[in-house]
Write a structure and sequence with these properties.
Blueprint: E1 4-5, E2 8-9, E3 19-20, E4 24-25, E5 53-55, E6 58-59, E7 65-66, E8 69-72, E9 78-80, E10 85-93, E11 97-106, E12 112-123, E13 130-131, E14 136-140, E15 152-162, E16 165-169
Antiparallel strand pairs: 1-4, 2-3, 5-8, 6-7, 8-15, 9-14, 10-11, 10-13, 11-12, 12-14, 12-15, 15-16
């Protein structure tokens, strides 16, 4: 019998406001559908061995929404850096629990990209640490009030649109293998010239 996870995720700015966003089978290689009212849906191709995505990116005209993707797996699953960079934050906060933020430097256009990892069970890096793509930075968990008690990694990608002004982008836009092509970490793959992300948890 397959187990189902039904994450409760805040998608509004009011504290404590939750809605049920759908269930996902706790198996590998599955990606939930985008919300019907999300305008920029991306066809997603999941590797068979990738832990499943239980909720997709969502943004509404008011600027609220779900600013990343949720990846479900067991507590203690390694969380790995999606690209090389420098840890800019590693701390606990009540809403999102243990979190790590990595600065991946400037692209050719001169703007920075950062990745954010939330609801971690534990953190294995500190601010100022330089990390390689695929290096373990934490373990997956369910910390923070907005985790809803369910084990998952909330993963975000933010890009500068002008100096010191960042905007969340759909992680499916920046995978190593192309838009919508979820890309498992491969230690033999060459580093790209500009920011490209690999999956922030190991594929089986």
């Amino acid at each position: 019998m397959r187990r189902f996870f039904c994450p409760l995720v805040a998608i509004a700015t009011l504290p404590g406001l939750f809605i049920l966003t759908g269930c996902v089978q706790h198996e590998l290689g599955h990606a939930s559908a985008y919300r019907p009212d999300h305008r920029e849906k991306i066809p997603v191709v999941m590797p068979q061995g990738a832990p499943s995505i239980s909720q997709e990116f969502f943004s509404d005209p008011a600027g609220s929404g779900h600013r990343g993707i949720d990846i479900v797996d067991r507590i203690g699953t390694p969380v790995i850096a999606a690209a090389p960079g420098v840890v800019k934050g590693s701390y606990f906060e009540p809403a999102y629990g243990n979190r790590v933020t990595i600065d991946h430097g400037h692209n050719a256009d001169g703007f920075k990209t950062i990745t954010v990892y939330k609801h971690l069970n534990s953190r294995t890096v500190s601010s100022g640490d330089r990390v390689a793509r695929g290096q373990q930075i934490a373990t997956l968990g369910n910390t923070g009030a907005l985790a809803g008690g369910l084990p998952h990694l909330h993963f975000e990608v933010h890009r500068e649109v002008r100096p010191d002004v960042k905007r969340a982008v759909d992680p499916h836009r920046v995978w190593m293998n192309g838009v919508g092509q979820v890309s498992c970490f491969d230690p033999a793959a060459a580093e790209p010239d500009s920011f490209r992300s690999t999956y922030p948890v190991p594929c089986r």
